[in-house]
Amino acid sequence: MSVTSGARINTNIGALNALNALNNVNRQLGVHQLRLATGKRINFGADDPSGFVISKKMEGSIRAMESALTNIGDAQSVYGVAEGGYQTIADILVQVKEKQTRAVNGAMGGDELDAIAAEINQLMHEIDDIRGQTKFNNQALLNGSYTATFQVGEESSATFNVSFAATVTSGGLLSVAAGSVTSANIGTLTVDPALKTVNTEIGKIGAAVNRLAVKEENLTTAITNTEAAKSRILDADIAKEQISSIKLQILQQTATAQLAQANMSPQVFLSLF
Q1: Domain CATH for 171
Q2: Is residue 52 part of a domain?
Q3: Is residue 117 in some structural domain?
Q4: Domain count, the chain
Q5: What is the 3-state secondary structure (H, E, C) of the chain?
Q6: Share above pLDDT 70 across residues of the chain, in percent, rounded to a whole number
Q7: Bridge partners of 162?
Q8: Residues 263, 140: one domain?
Q9: Which of 16, 15, 17, 14 minimizes the C-alpha distance to 4?
Q10: Average pLDDT in the 253-269 region?
Q11: How does pLDDT run across 198-210, given as a tens digit for each residue?
């Protein structure tokens, strides 16, 4: 910084130095005031180039994990709808077993057995209705061919497959087509194997939902930790910025005062005239 005796009034070096100092203070004060206004330490790439790049990369990771978290929720919803259908079918099969057992009764006549067969036929039709009506986003879940892939992590390779391959038609489960049950073939209905098939699928769904719950918890933790890491890089320390801002406001006042004094100092030499 240039220093002058002040005797040369054509160029007031002291005033220029004070002005440069004031401009520098104003520039720094503007930076701190912007940080206080936005809550961010890095508002432009020039503020911290490497920190800006790292924070943006973290932001991309967070967005990807949040989307994966949504995907997990959708997968859980698919399982929930399918499980509801399976459980209803299982309840119906329990009713069929009850009526099948009831039919083995020597005290019943042909009319009573025909009535039981008619009830079972209606229950079997209901199984087929449930199979057709159990859908998610207009896609049938229990038709034996449903399969879908969900990305459940930040990386594209972190996928989870959802599928329901069991055949749950009434005829496939009970070995007799719906509407074809008679008093003569009630005893041939394969109710126990059907219950085993459906309950096995429900058990698989329960295990898969538990896996998804673990993934959901891990993702939530990862998102929180990444947010914290990004915050340490990107966000402003409000207390520190306020302290710096107050210091610069004081320097702004003193620099302004010095600029005023520097502008007045050449007048001292008027006494020589």
Answers
A1: 1.20.1330.10
A2: no
A3: yes
A4: 2
A5: CCCCCCCCCCCCHHHHHHHHHHHHHHHHHHHHHHHHHHCECCCCHHHCHHHHHHHHHHHHHHHHHHHHHHHHHHHHHHHHHHHHHHHHHHHHHHHHHHHHHHHCCCCCCHHHHHHHHHHHHHHHHHHHHHHHHCEECCEECCCCCEEEEEECCCCCCCEEEEEECCCCCHHHHHCCCCCCCCCCCHHHCCHHHHHHHHHHHHHHHHHHHHHHHHHHHHHHHHHHHHHHHHHHHHECCHHHHHHHHHHHHHHHHHHHHHHHHHHHHHHHHHHHC
A6: 93
A7: 148
A8: no
A9: 14
A10: 77
A11: 999 999 999 999 9
Of 159 and 40, the one with more pLDDT? 159
Residues in Cβ contact with 31 at an 8 Å cutoff, skipping those fewer than 6 apart: 47
Task: Locate 185 and state its tokens.
Answer: 């073939």
Give the whole-angstrom CA distance, residue 63 versus residue 213: 19
Cα–Cα distance measured from residue 129 to residue 123, given in angstroms and rounded to the nearest whole number: 10
CA angle 127, 128, 130 (to 5 degrees): 65
265: its two tokens: 């100092």
pLDDT for 11 equals 63
Residue 142 pLDDT grade (very low, low, confident, very high; cuts 50, 70, 90): very high
Q: What is the pTM of this model?
A: 0.77
End-to-end CA distance of the chain: 30
Res. 78: pLDDT tops 60: yes
Domain of 28 in residue numbering reads as 13-39+236-272
Q: Within a domain: residue 53?
A: no
Buried b (16+ CB within 10 A) or exposed e, 16-39: ebbbebbeebeebbebbeebeeee
